[in-house]
Amino acid sequence: MIPITTVEFGEEEQQLVLEVLRSGAVAQGPKVAQLEGRFGELFGSPHVVAVNNGTTALIAAMQILDLQPGDEVITTPFTFVATLNAILEAGATATFADIRSDDFNIDPASVAERVTDRTKVLLPVHLYGQMADMDPLVALATERGLRILEDSAQSHGASYKGKYAGSYGLGTFSLYATKNITTGEGGLITTDDDTLADRLRLLRNQGMRARYVYEMAGNNYRLTDLQAALGIPQLERYAQTVAKRQSNADRLIEGLSDVPGVIVPRQLNGRGHVWHQFTVRITDEARVGRDAFVEALAERGVGSGIYYPKLVTDYDAYRSHPRVIPADVPVATQVVKEVLSLPVHTALSDADLTEVISAVRAVAGA
Ligand SMILES: *Cc1c(COP(=O)(O)O)cnc(C)c1O
């Protein structure tokens, strides 16, 4: 079976983890600082604050914005549930804009329609490795005095007109096991704002400035050096990782773009895609429905995934939540029924790619 996701660690990770183990200092320390510094250097961020996971990163980013009860955050309903959980954990109210079908990301035109006097934050999610259309979001945020928080959990190193994900004020990344860079669990927050960075560092460590000097109510959001040791070598290799994912995506696009009922993903002009997922849409024109497609691929030894089977606002737990305001999102409602992700990871061989392509073609009857 060709898996939809794999984890690959090299000699360097083993060496570095051993180094930390032998040092006996396994909590937050120099390796975390090194991971933060290197990530900032590579992806244009003056401040990087590592935390224990990507959900915490989102929560912390909103907590330091001092959101008040009733303050609204506009996001996409087509995301991993962590985005919504973080908004609720931070005490804010979640509202939703529709998405675009060409990049699966929040539609700035829909956001503009849904901004209210209570809106404080625009929270685009850069889904599957490609950034949202940032220019109109920035224009809207500037006009209305809003913050932008980018959920870049799936988009390390993705870019929009030469600017990296996470460089529009506040950004968050996940280092979970399935992400493009992983420490098992882990998260990063990026910002260009000195004050926000300072507050994030305090918040992460019990609100403590110096030993037992508490300046704010804080928490324990720390990452460990053991985890950071796993991440550092992956950063050094990351350009190759993205190049391999890009060439895999190119192969899949070339092999599948003429298949009736299968719409291949597009890398939009001006955007650097890091291909966290390769997500096609199975339309009504296809010979088999999306769910049957997944099963038929599995029978042919090709793993695939549905990210995500429902919109976050489709679940009763959230529909009935007093701080969730569901909205009419026709594009997202359609797209969620069509998406199917195919393997695009770095462990794929040439033969694997050929197999994925021929399996999809066979199932689609092309
Ligand atoms: C993975 C993910 C998160 C959460 O990250 P964790 O590290 O798993 O907590 C948040 N948002 C999106 C879009 C994600 O894919």
TrEMBL record:
Keyword annotations: Aminotransferase, Pyridoxal phosphate, Transferase
Residues crossing the lipid bilayer are none
Q: Which InterPro entries match?
A: DegT/StrS_aminotransferase, PyrdxlP-dep_Trfase, PyrdxlP-dep_Trfase_major, PyrdxlP-dep_Trfase_small
One Gene Ontology molecular-function label: pyridoxal phosphate binding
Query: To which species is this protein native?
Result: Cryobacterium lyxosi
- Cofactor(s) in the UniProt record: pyridoxal 5'-phosphate
Q: Give the sites modified to N6-(pyridoxal phosphate)lysine.
A: 179
Its family?
Belongs to the DegT/DnrJ/EryC1 family.
- Name the UniProt record assigns to this protein: DegT/DnrJ/EryC1/StrS family aminotransferase
A Gene Ontology biological process in which this protein takes part is: polysaccharide biosynthetic process
Q: Which residues form the active site?
A: 179 (proton acceptor)
